[in-house]
Amino acid sequence: MEIEIKEFVKGAVEAEGVTVIIDVFRAMSVACYAFDYGVKRIIDVSSAEDALKLKNKLQSETILVGERDEKKIPGFDFCNSPTEMLTGKIRGKTMIHTTTAGTRGILSATKATEVLGAALVNARATAKYIAFLKPEKVTLVAMGYRARESADEDILCAHHIRDLIMGREKDITEDIKMLLNGSGRRFFEPANLDFSPPTDFFLCTDPDRFNFVLKAINTPGGYAELIKVDFNS
What is the number of other CB atoms lying within 10 angstroms of the CB of residue 181? Predict the structure, then answer.
């Protein structure tokens, strides 16, 4: 099995084989918590305009979740925050999701044979699923901060998934602690509390919390639906 690590939207566009789009802070973590707290469907779209158009088309009750520059998009129901997924207001609803990095990566991986979304919270399930598939090629795409700067948490997650696929166990507790003084520091800055609360950091860095895979399925209209696939093997 060949495993390659790439970054950013460029990496997603180039990715081949089973492709994992990694966005720990925060898109893929948000998707995991949303499913865990009862959202019915998650549909990734490329823009706020597409999100509003899709909301008008769908008959089911929908919520708009997303960010630009880390802040909630005007007119949206929730920011791209796992903390906001715990409000109890999402159960049974269709979530339309658009972000700067994670959802763009999902939509950009057009050469992949299969597209998965991952974060630290479902890394082990993702690795087990890939090991079960035994594909010839795996591409792990660390989407990075705003899809243009390397992000320690995404690189950590990519290495963690690669190690688990290869059957190598490594304690990443200290690596996660180091994020507090690095890329995770922004969650503790007073100016960011309204849209990036400290609880987001801890929710996003709870490794292997969920035993399910996020599988992306392309849909007509240029969207992608994330499917929750339980995987405990």
Answer: 9
The mean pLDDT value of the chain amounts to 96
pLDDT at 179: 98
Q: Which residue has the tokens 């035993």?
A: 211
Closest by Cα among 85, 84, 93 to 43: 93
Give the sheet arrangement for strand 212-219, strand by strand: 2-7, 137-142, 17-22, 112-118, 212-219, 223-230, 41-44, 94-98, 62-68, 71-72
Q: What value does the mean pLDDT take over residues 52-59?
A: 92
pLDDT exceeds cutoff 80 at 31: yes
Letter for the amino acid at 177?
A: K
Task: Give the type of residue at 68.
Answer: R
- pLDDT in the model for residue 220: 82
Name the CA radius of gyration of the chain, rounded. Answer: 16
Query: For residue 103, what are its two tokens?
Result: 């959802």
* Confidence at residue 26, expressed as pLDDT on a 0 to 100 scale: 98
Checking if the pLDDT of 232 tops 80, the result is no
Helix residue spans in 18-87 (DSSP H): 27-36, 48-57
pLDDT at 233 over 90: no
All domains of the chain in start order, with CATH: 2-230 (3.90.1560.10)
DSSP state of 145: B
Q: Which amino acid is at 185?
A: R
Closest CA to 202 of 96, 104, 83: 83
Q: How far apart are CA 147 and CA 198, in angstroms?
A: 22
Distance (Å, whole) CA 216 – CA 35: 14
